[in-house]
C-alpha cells in the first residue's frame, strides 16, 4: 500500500508543478504581449510597464484568452493602431513560445 501512496503523492506533486509552470508561462506571455502592444501604441517606458501589468491583470477576468484579446484589440483600436483578432492571436502564439523559452532559460 505504501508504494501506491507514494505514486499518488508523486502524481499530485507533478500535477501541481505543471500547473505552476503553466501559470508562469501564461503570465509571462501576457506581459510580453502587453509590451508588444505598447510599442505599437508608442507608449513611454513607464506607460509600457503599467500597460503590461494591466494586460496580465486582464487575464483574470474570465477563463481563457478571450479577455486578453478583447482588451488588446480594443486598446490598439482606441490608440489608432489597426488591429484585429487574427493579428493579436498570432502575437499571442508567438509570445507564448517566447515566454516558455525564457522560463526554461531562467532555470
UniProtKB/TrEMBL annotation:
UniProt-listed Pfam families: ATPaseInh_sub_z (PF07345)
Domain of life of the organism encoding this protein: Bacteria
Name of this protein: DUF1476 domain-containing protein
Lineage: Bacteria, Pseudomonadati, Pseudomonadota, Alphaproteobacteria, Sphingomonadales
Amino acid at each position: 500500500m505504501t508504494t501506491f501512496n507514494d505514486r499518488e503523492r508523486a502524481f499530485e506533486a507533478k500535477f501541481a508543478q505543471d500547473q505552476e509552470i503553466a501559470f508562469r508561462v501564461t503570465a509571462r506571455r501576457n506581459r510580453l504581449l502587453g509590451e508588444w502592444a505598447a510599442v505599437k501604441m508608442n507608449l513611454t517606458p513607464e506607460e509600457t510597464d503599467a500597460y503590461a501589468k494591466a494586460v496580465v491583470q486582464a487575464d483574470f477576468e474570465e477563463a481563457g484568452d478571450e479577455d486578453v484579446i478583447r482588451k488588446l484589440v480594443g486598446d490598439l483600436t482606441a490608440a489608432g493602431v489597426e488591429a484585429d483578432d487574427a493579428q493579436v492571436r498570432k502575437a499571442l502564439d508567438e509570445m507564448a513560445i517566447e515566454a516558455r523559452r525564457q522560463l526554461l532559460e531562467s532555470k
